[in-house]
Design brief:
Pfam families: 3HCDH, 3HCDH_N, ECH_1. Helices cover 49% and strands 12% of the residues. The protein contains 29 helices and 19 strands. Helix 5 crosses helix 6 (161-169). Bound molecules: nicotinamide-adenine-dinucleotide. The site of nicotinamide-adenine-dinucleotide has 24 residues, from helix 14, helix 17 and strand 15.
């Protein structure tokens, strides 16, 4: 087995352990590590009398990257005992290290995340090299796991229950060095690699009898145990607060972390380790961690690490329309260091659009996130104008004017002769087919959809839409832009609403259809939250405004009739029409929607929704939840079948990062794969929903064919 830890004992008796997995770019907690650590700890114990101390450092850019996700993402449900044994062994090694009876120092020369920080926590002192890129934390929760190398037990004992839970464990926060020092995850920070080892040696010399606080007589957990009155009165609030994060019962990791921390704080260290392992085994053998690891690690890598090849550089961006989207797109371009000309019909409108960036920059300066100089430099990159002549020479055009094809044609016609002759021409339309929009430009091969999501500076996804005439080079140039803006792209083929708008529309329509059936609005909201959606469905519809689905519906209907196709009304249509026409409640921007608003703030569901209530309606709550998850999954399969979607990974990543499909599922197609009974189980349930609620749930042919063939979406 490969040796991943180098062992060097100097004349002074100090052993320097260098983490250096020769087969990988980063050190991970794989089988080779476990074997190497076993041998290392045994040797330290055998040579104990000749040793004065131990320094652990790394030969890689990161110190230690943590668990091996290849392994963790594929543990079968019936291998729980094996995981328990392995985890116990890994923990046992770290326990032997911290009870060696000699000072052990972690000389942290790069990021220590997950298993990496757990190794560091089992050392008596953590000294870190001051590097702005270094991250320290236990992000396991973001993959549906908990840190099972003693991370829960030791952070609770080091920082106290409240800090360990809120600052480290429950959010999986990745701390920069300064924050890690302040919190107490790191004890000391030095500026150079030489100082790092020197400081470690110094500390060893000064602390020959180092031991962990929890192995020291009289030790008490900071802030007390769950039976300490002050803490006891706080803890009951934790599960309630967690509910917000858990979004229903589907995310088991935060719940298990809380249990492991609280139960572990009431017993001795060794029993606490066992408790931690049990809660870990439950997570790692269950479906949610597997889904999340697949989505957040494998699928994300697949879509973000595309080969783009050589493309011409971007030197000047023209953003057309300085409204909500244009203003924010200008900001992310400037943030990436690109000069931007932001154009609107009036100078006043353009200046207002630049104001969006000014606000963010002022806030960031106020919070110390960027310096005043950097903030000013960012703002200097944005020129607000009403003059098309100012767009001369731009090699990237992003159009974000009103959603009106004629207007979009007009603004492209205005600028095409002014910008660079080979400028990339992008539209941020959220629904209009790209091929038809491209009819308005001379260079149709250079035209492409670049669909950002609101709020642009926070949402990580960009949907790149290929029109019929879009060239491959144009696609690669668009991907290069997205990467430059530090976002994740999915590439789809053209269709009305593309992938994201089309699928999210089925979700909002489903919620509204329930209202039409007479379901209590609070139950609808609760069902979507419990299914794991980031925002309740009616609340989301208010944000998007009810006029939007109506406009899209009218466009669809017109397109269907032009193509001689049948148009089918949706049960949500009538509710939407009445909300707008009869009650004058088009959504948040109109000051009233499914919710009431006071001074722009949401105050509660509108009592008038009782108009739609039916006293005798009785729909199982499980159906309410699954109808939303199913309708989006079924529409996605249709997108795949029609060639709108090009890959399963793009469907999964696009659904989570673009349109808020619940992360616990691993994405919209993974939801189908993992449904109880697999694809046949999903098909059977879809048929049942179709019988109860309408043909829109009828499983599409591709789904049935895959289920019959025993395949999954992969
Ligand atoms: P908006 O109404 O906030 O802004 C549109 C801006 O375009 C206005 O400032 C308007 O003055 C300007 N404009 C109109 N005619 C112009 C012209 N001839 N030249 C220059 N500017 C002109 O709209 P928005 O929400 O920012 O949406 C813009 C586009 O982005 C639409 O196509 C929309 O579908 C799409 N989109 C919106 C969202 C969203 O969440 N709002 C998300 C993704 C995509």
């Amino acid at each position: 087995m490969t040796d991943t830890i180098r062992y060097d004992r100097g004349d002074d008796g100090i052993v320097v352990l260098t983490l250096d997995d020769p087969r990988r770019g980063a050190n991970t907690m794989n089988d080779a590590y476990v074997a190497s650590m076993e041998a290392t700890v045994s040797r330290l114990e055998a040579e104990r009398d000749q040793i004065t101390g131990v320094i652990i450092t790394s030969a890689k850019n990161s110190w230690f990257a943590g668990g091996d996700l290849d392994q963790l993402g594929s543990v079968p449900a019936d291998r729980g005992q094996d995981v328990f044994d392995l985890s116990t062994r890994v923990k046992g090694q770290l326990r032997r290290l911290e009870t060696l009876g000699k000072p052990v120092v972690a000389a942290i020369n790069g990021s220590a995340l997950g298993g990496g920080l757990e190794l560091a926590l089992s050392c008596h002192r953590r000294i870190a090299l001051n590097n702005p890129k270094t991250e320290i934390g236990l992000p396991e929760v973001t993959l549906g796991l908990l840190p099972a190398g003693g991370g829960v037990v030791r952070t609770v004992r080091l920082l106290g229950l409240v800090n360990a839970l809120t600052q480290v464990l429950l959010q999986g926060t990745r701390h920069r060095i300064a924050a890690a020092l302040k919190l107490g995850l790191v004890d000391q920070v030095v500026d150079t690699p030489e100082e790092l080892i020197a400081a470690a040696r110094e500390w060893i010399a000064a602390n020959p009898a180092a031991a962990q606080p929890w192995d020291t007589k009289g030790y008490k957990i900071p802030g007390g145990t769950p039976s300490t009155p002050a803490l006891a009165s706080m803890l009951p609030a934790f599960p309630a607060n967690l509910r917000k994060q858990l979004k229903g019962a589907f995310y088991p990791a935060p719940r298990n972390i809380l249990s492991a921390a609280v139960e572990g704080a009431q017993v001795d260290v060794d029993n606490a380790f066992v408790i931690e392992t049990r809660y870990f085994v439950e997570l790692v053998t269950g479906p949610v961690a597997k889904n999340m690891i697949k989505a957040f690690f494998f699928d994300l890598n697949e879509v973000s690490q595309r080969d783009i090849g050589e493309v011409p550089p971007i030197t000047k961006v023209a953003v057309l329309g300085a409204g909500m989207m244009g203003a924010a797109i200008a900001y992310v371009c400037a943030r990436a260091g690109l000069p931007v000309v932001l154009r609107d019909v009036s100078l006043e409108g353009a200046v207002r659009g630049k104001g969006y960036s000014e606000k963010i920059v002022a806030k960031d300066i106020g919070r110390g996130r960027i310096s005043e100089d950097k903030g000013r430099a960012l703002l200097d990159l944005i020129t607000a104008t009403d003059q098309v002549a100012d767009l001369a020479g731009a090699d990237l055009v992003i159009e974000a004017v009103f959603e009106d094809p004629a207007l979009k044609h007009k603004v492209f016609a205005e600028i095409e002769g002014i910008v660079a002759p080979d400028a990339l021409l992008c539209s941020n339309t959220s629904t209009l087919p790209i091929t038809a929009l491209a009819d308005g430009v001379q260079r149709q091969a250079d035209f492409i959809g670049l669909h950002f999501f609101s709020p642009v500076d926070k949402m990580p996804l960009v949907e790149v839409i290929k029109g019929e005439k879009t060239s491959d080079l144009t696609v690669r140039r668009a991907l290069d832009v997205v990467r430059r803006l530090r976002k994740t792209p999915i590439v789809v083929n053209d269709s009305r609403g593309f992938f994201t708008s089309r699928v999210i529309g089925t979700f909002t329509n489903e919620g509204i259809a329930m209202l039409a059936e007479g379901v209590a609005p609070a139950s609808i909201e609760q069902a979507s939250s419990q299914a794991g959606y980031p925002a309740p469905v009616l609340q989301l519809m208010d944000e998007l405004t009810l006029t939007l689905p109506r406009k899209i519906r009218n466009e669809y209907r017109a397109a269907a009739s032009a193509a001689g196709q049948q148009w089918e009304a949706h049960p949500a249509d009538e509710v939407i029409d009445r909300m707008i026409d009869e009650f004058g409640r088009p959504g948040r921007s109109g000051g009233a929607g499914f919710y009431e608003y006071a001074d722009g703030r949401r105050t509660g569901l509108w009592a008038g929704l009782s108009t739609f209530a039916k006293p005798d309606v009785s729909i199982p709550f499980e159906d309410l939840k699954e109808r939303m998850l199913f309708i989006e999954a079924i529409e996605t399969v249709k997108c795949l079948d029609e060639g709108v979607l090009l890959s399963v990974a793009e469907a999964n990543i696009g659904s989570i990062f673009g349109i808020g499909y619940p992360g616990w599922t691993g994405g919209v197609l993974q939801y189908i794969n993992q449904y109880e009974g697999g694809l046949p189980g999903f098909v059977a349930r879809a048929r049942q929903l179709a019988e109860r609620y309408g043909d829109r749930f009828t499983p599409p042919p591709l789904l049935i064919a895959k289920a019959d063939a025993g395949e999954i979406f992969a």
